[in-house]
Structures are given as C-alpha cells and as structure tokens.
Write a structure and sequence with these properties.
globular; single chain; about 260 residues; 7-stranded parallel beta sheet; alpha/beta
Length: about 260
C-alpha cells in the first residue's frame, strides 16, 4: 500500500534541515508539494571544513535556505520576519557530542540543553501566531535517549526528555488551534551517527534489524502534520527499541 500526501500551498519550516534526518524530512515535504524553508547555522553551499554540505535528498528548487542559529533570538526574528504563512514546523535541530558529565565544562552542557530544549521552545513560541492562523502543527523530533538512560550524553538525554514533555504541554495549551506531537527516534543511520558510533553499523542492536532512516522519520512527520485529530502523541520510530545487553550475555553463557 502506498500513502501519498498533498501539501501544495502549505509552508513548512524544518530546523536543521540541511543534513541527516532534517534533510530527509525537508525532501519529503518538498516532494509532497510544500513550500519548504530550511534553516541551519551554516549555509550548505559553503559548509566549514569537516562539515558535510546538504544531503542530496533536498531538491535545490524545493527548499529555501535561511541561515539561522535557533538558539539566537535575533536570528529567529530574522527567520520569522520572512514568513507570511506557516502550516508546519518540524523542530529537528539538535544533537550532542559524547560528553561525560565528569570533567566537561558547564558551558558545554548549557549549550546542549539550549539547542535541544530551549531552542525548540523558542521556535514554537515564535511560530504560534502563524500556525494558529492556518490551523497548523508542530512536530518535535525527539529521541529514545530521552526515554532511557543515556550515559555519556546525559545533558542531551535530559533535554530530550524535557522536549517530549514540552510537546505534551503545548498540545494541551494550544488546542484546538495548533496540534503538537513528537517523533521519538531511536538509533538512526545518518552521517553524524556513523561518526557517533565509531563508524560501526549498530543495526544489530535493533529488533527490526536496522537503524531508522531519514525516510522512516519523514513518513511519520507527513502523517502527523496532516490535518486531523491527533495531537499530544509520541510516535516511537525505533524499530522495536534496542535489544538489552543481557540478551547477548545470556546467549554467550549458553554457548
């Protein structure tokens, strides 16, 4: 069965939309006919050394790029001043380096929380008047790190847990004018994740046998953004979760 969506005439903002999951989501909305606006700190045409440019999945003619750091209120002013209409916001910008709590700077953890929790709050706040006028929706890109222990990325996991709760709060606060839901992403295959996992394919840790792709996440975003009754939802896109370590230990013992 093939499900198609028509977002012709709709305006969709995807934060962090030049790479990875964000690029896949932007490409999906563009393919469905939407006018897509993507933002990131770096222009994909002039990415700094060591930072990949935009993924090829985003059609050059299908998305408009605005350089903006979503943690910066001034950048958000500039971003939203160029929007007369808005139907969907996908709060995708986020991430974290491996940063054990001991020995790392308070400033690093503050920036991680700002990017993964405060910035989505500010983006949603700025988008609300436009979304209320169009009957639109906000989609938060969450993480399984916010639902289970996240050693080595504690600030990130805590921020994502807060993001999930923020979405539930806004869903109640802004109903029925604006719908707000979360896509809780598990292990995902992107350029960044390959570096994060040391270049290893960790899909064997997923019951489904592989990591999620940007296309998997994009399909859920297309569904959540479509007008309907669903709001305050948390959709798990994790392929069944992660196989616990004790399963492997038990298997080794039995062999």
């Amino acid at each position: 069965m093939t499900v198609t969506y028509d977002y012709t005439g709709k305006v969709v903002l995807v934060t962090g939309g030049t790479r990875g999951i964000g690029a896949g989501v932007a490409a999906a909305f563009a393919a469905a006919g939407a006018q897509v606006v993507i933002c990131a700190r770096h222009d994909p045409a002039a990415a700094p050394e060591g930072v990949p440019s935009a993924d090829p999945g985003v059609p050059a003619a299908g998305a408009r790029f605005v350089r903006a750091d979503v943690r910066d209120p001034g950048d958000l002013d500039r971003l939203f001043s160029g929007l007369d209409r808005l139907d969907v916001v996908v709060n995708n910008a986020g991430g974290s380096p491996y940063a054990p709590l001991e020995g790392t700077s308070p400033r690093l953890h503050t920036r991680i929380v700002e990017l993964n929790l405060i910035a989505p709050l500010l983006v949603a706040q700025r988008a609300y008047p436009l979304l209320a006028a169009s009957g639109g929706s906000v989609i938060m890109i969450g993480s399984s790190s916010g639902t289970r222990p996240s050693p080595g990325t504690s600030a990130y996991g805590a921020a994502k847990a807060g993001l999930h709760h923020l979405a539930n709060c806004l869903a109640a606060e802004w109903a029925p004018l604006v719908r707000v839901s979360t896509v809780v992403v598990g292990l995902a295959a992107t350029d960044d994740s390959r570096d994060h996992y040391g270049g290893k394919d960790v899909g064997a840790a997923v019951p489904a046998g592989r990591m999620a792709t940007p296309e998997d996440v994009a399909g859920v975003c297309l569904w959540l953004a479509a007008p309907g009754y669903v709001t305050g939802a948390q959709v798990q896109v994790h392929g069944g979760g992660e196989i616990p370590a004790w399963r492997h230990l038990a298997s080794d013992d039995m062999s």
